[in-house]
């Protein structure tokens, strides 16, 4: 069942609201990184880059394409931006897991010297993956936005959608899960007098869960759509609203779980206290003895 223009507009509103929250969360992380020098460590730099990818991904989803056709320029731009930066965000989550594994389990701190290579590698790979659907003319309208079309046939669009996104996505979910289990095991075996390791260990399980929560509904819907399941076709509008809302929160959840750490909270609290003290001192009258 094809969605009406009004239904696509409503989906766009839900999509924009959730992605708006994601942008705000990511901007908070970026501002913290830029403002406070003590936060410019290697782990937080990884989170800063993840936030940049998530911001552009959310901007892509917020482009107003609900009234456009497959061949419209803005629709093609949205599909490319979504494809590039969503995949970049997923890949970078894998880089974070890989880096934590090498630092904590392997005690190899030299991995931070490869940061630029990681960035270049992820961007180049995502650009290649984004160009392929352009060549095969596979980008077009899907539900409330534009991405790789799905026609219900084993054609190029099917292979591009699954082999260029869904299969790498779930491979990385398994990869991240395995690495985080190894990191968690290592943290439990080491001394934790200050509670830092146990705090990190409690958060580790949320990292792969973010990908599962945000992308599992869309993956299931995509598979059911391909099989032309009656339930999906009948409730396409309602299901797409849920998917748009949940997937749009990807950046917000990343910012909250990865970035809102104890160190960030302490730094923010201290920064606000210093600003309050500075403001109070500026308002105090100057005594004659102090001149």
TrEMBL record:
Its main location: membrane. GO terms for biological process: adenylate cyclase-activating G protein-coupled receptor signaling pathway; cell surface receptor signaling pathway. The keyword Membrane applies. It comes from the Eukaryota. Residues 11-262 form the G-protein coupled receptors family 2 profile domain. The keyword Transmembrane applies. GO terms for molecular function: G protein-coupled receptor activity. Keywords: G-protein coupled receptor, Membrane, Receptor, Transducer, Transmembrane, Transmembrane helix. Pfam families: Dicty_CAR. It is a multi-pass membrane protein. The chain crosses the membrane at residues 12-34, 46-68, 80-104, 116-135, 162-183, 204-220, 240-260. GO terms for cellular component: plasma membrane. InterPro entries: GCR1-cAMP_receptor, GPCR_2-like_7TM, GPCR_GCR1_put, GPCR_Rhodpsn_7TM. Residues 25-258 form the G-protein coupled receptors family 1 profile domain. This is G-protein coupled receptors family 2 profile 2 domain-containing protein. It comes from Stentor coeruleus.
């Amino acid at each position: 069942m094809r969605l009406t223009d009004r239904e696509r507009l409503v989906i766009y509103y839900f999509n924009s609201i959730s992605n708006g929250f994601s942008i705000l969360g990511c901007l908070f992380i970026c501002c913290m990184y830029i403002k406070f020098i003590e936060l410019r460590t290697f782990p937080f730099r990884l989170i800063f880059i993840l936030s940049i990818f998530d911001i552009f991904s959310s901007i892509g989803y917020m482009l107003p394409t609900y009234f456009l056709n497959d061949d419209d320029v803005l629709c093609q731009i949205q599909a490319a931006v979504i494809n590039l930066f969503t995949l970049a965000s997923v890949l970078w989550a894998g880089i974070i897991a890989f880096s934590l594994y090498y630092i904590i389990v392997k005690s190899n701190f030299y991995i931070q010297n490869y940061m630029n290579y990681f960035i270049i590698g992820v961007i180049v790979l995502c650009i290649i993956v984004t160009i392929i659907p352009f060549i095969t003319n596979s980008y077009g309208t899907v539900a409330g936005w534009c991405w790789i079309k799905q026609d219900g046939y084993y054609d190029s669009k099917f292979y591009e959608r699954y082999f260029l996104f869904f299969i790498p996505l779930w491979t990385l979910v398994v990869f991240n899960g395995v690495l985080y289990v190894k990191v968690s095991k290592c943290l439990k075996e080491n001394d934790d007098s200050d509670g830092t390791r146990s705090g990190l260990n409690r958060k580790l399980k949320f990292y792969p869960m973010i990908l599962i929560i945000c992308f599992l509904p869309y993956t299931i819907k995509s598979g059911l759509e391909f099989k032309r399941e009656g339930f999906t076709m009948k409730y396409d509008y309602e299901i797409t609203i849920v998917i748009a809302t949940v997937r749009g929160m990807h950046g917000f959840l990343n910012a909250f779980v990865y970035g809102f750490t104890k160190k960030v909270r302490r730094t923010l609290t201290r920064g606000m206290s210093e600003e309050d003290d500075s403001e109070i001192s500026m308002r105090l009258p100057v005594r004659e003895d102090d001149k």
